[in-house]
Amino acid sequence: MISRFTTAFCALAAFVVVALPAAAEDSVKIAYVDPLSGGGASIGEVGLKTFQYLADSVNANGGVVGHKLEIVAYDNKLNAQETLLQVQKAIDSGVRFITQGNGSAFAAAIEDFVTKYNERNPGKEVLFFNYAAVDPVLTNDKCSYWHFRWDANSDIKMAALTNYMKTRSNVKKVYLINQDYSFGQSVRKGAREMLGAKRPDVEIVGDEVHPLLKVTDFSPYIAKIKASGADSVITGNWGQDFALLLKAAADAGLQVDWYTYYAGGTGGPTAIKQANLADRVYQISEGLPNEPYAPAQEFEKAFRAKTGVSLFYPRAVNEIGMFVKAAKEANSVDPVKVAAKLDGMKFTVDNGGEGFMRTDDHQFFQPMYIANLGPLDKNQPFEEEGTGWGWKVTGKIDAQDTLLPTSCKMNRPS
Amino acid sequence: MLELVTISTLNGVLYGMLLFLMASGLTLIFSMMGVLNFAHASFYMLGAFFGFQISQFVGFWPAFFIAPVLVGGIGALVERYGLRRVHKHGPVAELLFTFGLAFVIVEIVQMIWGKGPADYRVPPSLNFSAFTAFSTNYPAYKMFELLTAIAIFAVLLMLLTRTRIGLIIQASLTHPHMVAMLGHNVPRIFMLVFGVGTGLAAVAGVIAGPALVTQSNMAGSLGPILFVVVVVGGLGSLFGAFLASLLIGLVQTFAVSVNLSIADVLQPLGVAAPSGGALFDIWNVTVAQIAPIIPYLLLVLILIFRPTGLMGTREQ
Predict the structure, then answer these.
(1) Do A274 and B212 touch (CB under 8 A)?
(2) Which of A371, A401, B163, B311 sits 20 to 30 Å CA-CA off B23?
(3) What are the boundaries of each domain within chain B?
(4) CATH of domain A27-152+295-365
C-alpha cells in the first residue's frame, strides 16, 4: 500500500520536475525590439501592451499549436546599433521570431541582419515580422524572403490618400510638412508624384522637412503654412512632432484640412480636440474602432478594458493571427515552415474583409480606411483618449485597389 | 513681407521668453553656486507633472503656486543631503551627481505617470486669443508665458543687485569664509539658492506643460538647448541669459522662414551644382531645414570667438 503510494508520488514528482521546465522551454518566443526608453518610449510602450495582450488571448485559446506564446521585450533606444545588439541578444537566447515597427531605418538594419544571418546559419533561420515600418524600400529594392510587412507601406497609403483627395474639389493648394528622415522623405516624394499625376491642377505651395523629434516650437512653420495660402496639409509626422504641430496650428487659428498617417497615435486625438479641428483631420489606416464590424468592436471593447488604451495596431492583430494560422497549417513553429505558409497566405483581417501576403515582396495587402476625427454620432461607440471625439470612416479602399507594383527580386530558399 | 517679419518677430520673442523661463533657474544656480546643474531640465519636468497632478484636484491657479514650492522644497533637500556632501570632492563630483540625478528623476516620473503624455490642458480662464495680427491668433496663454518670464527676470535682477540678500548671496560665492565670519549661515544660503533655482525650473514646467507635451521625455528634449542659452549668454549672467534666449528664439524663428539653399545663392553667380554624392545634398539643403540646429552652431562659434559668452564675467 505504502509502496504503491510512494511509487505514485515519485512518478508525480518526476512528472512535475520534468514537465515544468519542458513546458517553459517549449514556449515560442517573439522578440519585441522597439524603443522602451527615451523619446520613443511612449510609442514603444503601446506596441508592447498590444502584443502582450494578443499573446495572452492566443494562450487562452490553446497557444500556437500547443506551445505557449511569449513576448520578450528588448529596448532598442531608437538607435540602429543598439537595435542590432538587441536582435543578436534575442537570437542568442533562442528567439527565432523578431518583431519591430518604429523607424524604417532600424527595420532596414534588422532586415539586412536577418537575411545575412539566415544565409550563414542554415537550420537556425530567424523571421522578421514588421508591423509598422513603412518605408517602401523594405519590400522593393531591399526586399527579403525572411521579412514580412503587415502595415501598408507609405506609397500604398499615399495612393489611397491621394485617391481620396482627388475627389475633393476644395483641395487646391497643398502644403507638405514632414520629418527629415527616410520615412518623411518617402511621404513627400510620394505626395509630389501622385498628386501631380492625379490632380495636375493642385498646386503644391510648400514642401518642408524638419529634424525628427527635435522641434519644440512649431509656430514659425505654421506661420509659413499660413503665408502660403494652403487649404490642405499632408504630413507623415508622428508622436510629439504631430501633437506639437497641431497645437501650434490651433494657437495660431490655422484652418486647413490635415491629411495624415498617424493622427491617431498617442497624444494625437488630444491635440486635435484641443485644436478644435472637428472633422478636419484625416487619417489613413487599416482599421478603425467605429467601423461597424461586430467581432472587431468586441475585440476593441475587451482590449480597452484590459489595457486602458485604444487599439492603434490592428495590423498587430493580423500579424499574430496569421502567425498562429501559419503554424497550425504547418503543424510546426519552425521558422522555415512558418515562412512557407505565410508566403501568399489569405487572411480575414481584424476589421473584416480579405487580405493577402503577396508572394512577390511579402507585403500584406488589406482593405484601407480614411477617417476623420470629430464629435461622435449615435452609432459610434468608441471615443479616443477621453476627448468625446471618435473616428468616422469617410472612405474605404478594398485590398485589390491598393495594389502597387514592386521592384522586388526575391531570393527564395531552394 | 511685412507680415512675415512681424509674425516671425512675435513668434521669436515668445519662444525666446519660454527659453528664458527655463534657463533662468539654471543660470541662477550656476552664477551663485558654481554648480552646473545637469538635472535642471528634470526639475522642469517635475514641475510640469506636479502642476498637472495638482491642477487635477484644485485647478490651474493654485497649482501654479503650489507646484514650484514643492519642487523647490525637493531641490533644497537634494542640496542639503546630496549636493552638500558631494561638494567636498570638487566640481566634477557635483557634475556627476546632478547627471545621475537626472536619470533617477526620469525613472521615478515614468514609474508614477507612465511613459505616455499626460492630458494637461490650458486653463479655461486663459483659453482665448489675446489679439490677432495679420489673421494669425496669439493665445492669451502665450502672453501669460511672456509676462511671467519678464516678471521673473525683473524680480531676480532686483533681488540680486538691489537687496541685502542679494549682496550676501553674491558675497557667499566669492568670500564664503568672510561671510560666515560675519555671522551668516553660508550653507543655508546655498540651500536656499538651489531651492529657488529648481523652483524657477518648476514654474517653467507648470507653464510649458500645457503649451508643449507633458511626458517623461520632455526633459531630454529641452536639456541641450538650455545649456546653449546659458553658454551663449555667458555662464552665470542673468542678463546674458535673457539676451541669449531672445537671440536664439529670433534666429531660429527667422531661419525657418528662409527657403534659400547654397544652390540658390551660387547658381546666379554661375557656379554649377555638383551632380551627385554627399555634396549634392548639402547644396540643396535650405536654411529652413537646418533651423533647429542653428543654436548649436551658434554655441560652437561663441565658444571659439568669445568663450566668456555675450555678457559673461568669468574671465580666466
Answers:
(1) no
(2) B163
(3) 2-305
(4) 3.40.50.2300
The predicted-structure confidence for B74-128, as pLDDT tens digits, reads as follows 999 999 999 989 988 988 999 999 999 999 998 899 889 887 788 888 888 888 8
**Mutation site for B-interface testing, chosen from A219, A244, A307 by largest number of B Cβ within 10 Å:** A219
User: Per CATH, which fold does A155-285+368-401 belong to?
Assistant: Rossmann fold (3.40.50)
Which residue in A300, A188, A173 sits closest to A237, CA to CA? Answer: A188
Instruction: Please report the pLDDT score of residue A181 as a whole number.
Output: 85
- Residue A88: how many CB atoms within 10 A of its CB? 12
Best CA proximity match to A312, nearest among A324, A300, A295: A300
- E strands, A238-310, are 257-260, 281-285
* CATH hierarchy code of domain B2-305: 1.10.3470
Identical fold between A27-152+295-365 and A155-285+368-401: yes
User: Given B215, B221, B256, which is nearest A224 (Cβ)?
Assistant: B256
B3/A227 CB distance under 8 A:
yes
Q: Is B139 within 8 Å of A251 when comparing Cβ atoms?
A: yes
Look up the ipTM and state it.
0.85
Q: Is A199 helix (H, G, I), strand (E, B) or coil?
A: coil
Domain boundaries, chain A: 27-152+295-365, 155-285+368-401
Task: Please give the distance of CA A90 from its chain centroid, rounded to a whole number.
Answer: 21
Most A CBs within 10 A among B131, B213, B293, hence the mutation to make, goes to: B213
Chain length of chain B = 316
Task: State the Cα angle at B298 between B247 and B10, rounded to 5°.
Answer: 25
Q: What's the mean pLDDT when you consider all of chain A?
A: 89
Subunit contact A243:B213, Cβ cutoff 8 A: yes
pLDDT of residue B314: 56
Min Cα separation A260/chain B (Å): 19
| pTM of this prediction exceeds 0.80 | yes
Q: How far is B250 from chain A, CA to nearest CA, in Å?
A: 10
